[in-house]
Amino acid sequence: MKEDIHLMPRYILHNGRGASATVSFQGAQVLSWKTEHGEELLFTSKKFRNQGTQEQYGFAREKIWLYEKDPPPLLGDFSGKAFVDLLLKPQEEDRKVWPHSDVRVEGLDTLNYLDKLLQNQCFTEQGCSLSFESEVDRVYIETNNMVAVLDHQKRRTFVIRKDGLPDIVVWNPWKKKSKAIKDIGNEEYMHMLCVDSASVENPITLKPGQEWTGRLELSLLLSS
């Protein structure tokens, strides 16, 4: 392990042909990847340590990862290849930064959503599940009739079933906005998550004599 000019601990890997890679313990970032001829293959700005916020890169970027001296064996043929295992272990103070790291919402993948934090611009959900590291305020459009909220820490799953309500609202104010909301405590965002059915994109309008029925069903499943 060596120190670079910014005093960040780093690990330098070499293979038998002379190629190398440099991995920083801060954020487990790959800082350099060079061929056996010394050609640098990665671009890294000299100002990269001073730009961006945690919301841009996520909490893991700012954390110091631990070197795993006795990692489990890797699957596949890794003979002749150099690698290092870095682990990120949560500490008690980290719970204030990543309170929902063990909570995710499933059933929203590939759906379009309106992002209220970006002037209701429309995006498509790319992940297979939605996790939380910063403020989220979205309306998922024309969703499935069932979504699930998985809480791994408490080993439980909330299942939401709905009829007549096409959209799903997902909201957590996070730290900064919680302080501006009068009816939410400053730290209560760590213990709540709003996942609700709605009809936002196409509001339901009833004329005299018309009827409409909507149904929302919540159930709890416990894991052993």
UniProtKB/TrEMBL annotation:
SUPFAM superfamilies: Galactose mutarotase-like
Coiled coil region boundaries: none
InterPro entries in the cross-refs: Aldose_1/G6P_1-epimerase, Gal_mutarotase_sf_dom, GH-type_carb-bd
Pfam families assigned to the protein according to its UniProt record, in alphabetical order: Aldose_epim
Highest taxon above the source species: Eukaryota
PANTHER family the record matches: APOSPORY-ASSOCIATED PROTEIN C-RELATED, GLUCOSE-6-PHOSPHATE 1-EPIMERASE
Record-given protein name: Glucose-6-phosphate 1-epimerase
Naturally occurring in which organism (per UniProt): Flemingia macrophylla
